[in-house]
User: Fold this.
Amino acid sequence: MKPFTYERATTPAEAAAAVVRQPGSRFIAGGTNLLDLMKLEIETPAHLIDVNGLKLDTIEPTPDGGLRIGALVSNTNLAADQGVRRDYGVLSRAIVAGASGQLRNKATTAGNLLQRTRCPYFYDTNQACNKRRPGSGCAAIGGYSRQLAIIGTSDACIATYPGDMAVAMRLLDATVETVQPNGAARTIPIADFHKLWGKTPHIETALTNGELITAVTLPRPLGGTHVYHKVRDRASYAYALVSVAAVIQRDGTGRVAIGGIAPKPWRVEAADHAMPQGAKAVASRLLAGAKPTHDNAFKVPLVERTLAAVLAETRAA
Amino acid sequence: MTCSSELELSRRGLLAAGAATAAMTQVSVADAQGVSPSKPPPAMHVSFTVNGKRRELTLDTRTTLLDALREHLQLTGSKKGCDHGQCGACTVIVDGTRINSCLTLAVMHEGAKITTIEGLGTPERLHPMQAAFIKHDGYQCGYCTPGQICSAVAVLGEIAAGIPSHVTASLTGKPGVTNDEIRERMSGNICRCGAYSNILEAMTEVAGTRA
Ligand SMILES: Cc1cc2nc3c(=O)[nH]c(=O)nc-3n(C[C@H](O)[C@H](O)[C@H](O)COP(=O)(O)OP(=O)(O)OC[C@H]3O[C@@H](n4cnc5c(N)ncnc54)[C@H](O)[C@@H]3O)c2cc1C
Ligand code: SF4
Assistant:
């Protein structure tokens, strides 16, 4: 690990300003992704700003019937919150499908949204990787790409956004609240938060330098049946090959978002409209234009089959 | 003799030259990082309570909680397995919750209350979970065991607190102490010897249920 200096921020505005004051600064929350990458010197911040003291760790109702989740709420506390379990079950389910108990106790709402890809070549500093070292090439293209993306990719990078929680947040149309270094607040719809990176795979989100996430807001509950179905290589403690987050109403309408297949949680509104027509119709709209590799072509039928399983599950319920 | 002392000399020369090259490399690396070679890496003071005892340390900011416990406080019960949060051997309990001590910095724990395997029980006064692991043979080589036991104690607390898991049937109900729940919740602790079924028995006994 490269040496770094460390400070504890006490207010959001102070934290955001500190990043700009000290070049090479990063926020640290749970540290479960950042420190992992710092040990491998994939991330090399010169200064860390600990945001754990910002008191952004509460979950509160919003005036319009939604929920405001503080950026520092732990994954465990978010999944266990009674209101989330009752009204946003898909979010609880997605969180507890990810990582391990120990990690979820540390992982935070903001840190989870910002976790970086698990592409094996991104992690191997001996390999070419446009995301880790812009312009160096992409060892995954033509390499071992079983876990990687089938849609939304580019010639520069075929990595996935690996997380589970954000797939549920995309399904629920969450909004990310931030404060910028100049103190100005803004809100970013989750649909625009994670980017399709095109030629610049090192730019993964809509955040600007020093922009601090303060909260994630959920709109009013949707009702319906909430499902998060994660398909992975082992029954627990593994990243998704494909995951399906869905909210399905009694009349068969609903919405769906997919994890493990793209650089961002994958949702296509036109596919939602096809819900009453069944899994095949939904999957074909979701995956229109997919460009799988030889290794990960299995994900195309896997999306449809996982969707079919989810629809069958909700019909039975 | 002459031969060997000559060899000795030349080896020393070589070593010295090697050290000089290493030092030079270090200078250039340090320069590249903007850290002056004469300046030691940034250090900070931190104080926390470990197993009921207040501890004060001045540490390189890079020191993980695991390294602080093992290398600075000689509490070598917590183990370094993967050092990347994947194996769970470093699991300790901080302010009542279990975490991977390898993926957190010591300086982030000012004022925290930390419990390691050494604080759960002693050879003379075992924690019930330690006794149950012995009774049920919940290990073979023992390397993962301190992390397994810290996790096991915390898992029973998490179930009692009603925290849901991936296998909890109803999100609005309370999870029970079942085999499925224990297996799922313990998945962050890997055992290379495969003592899983015995760990399950030990935990089930401590929970007071035959699931
Ligand atoms: C072995 C292992 C298995 C895992 N399995 C899964 C899995 O199956 N599914 C899954 O979804 N995840 C999984 N994870 C990832 C885990 O969910 C993330 O590491 C965690 O959510 C990151 O949160 P954190 O608070 O620790 O983030 P940190 O590591 O503290 O930060 C991550 C990034 O977010 C930035 N950041 C943090 N807070 C803020 C803020 N308020 N504003 C702006 N920037 C901020 C940091 O600067 C950093 O760049 C796994 C991790 C490990 C180690
Ligand atoms: S797929 Fe993306 S992250 Fe993986 S090696 Fe290529 S550029 Fe890097």
Observations:
- Confidence is low (pLDDT under 50) at residues 1-32 of chain B.
- The first helix of chain B runs from residue 2 to 33.
- The longest strand of chain B covers residues 43-50.
- Chain B has seven helices and five strands.
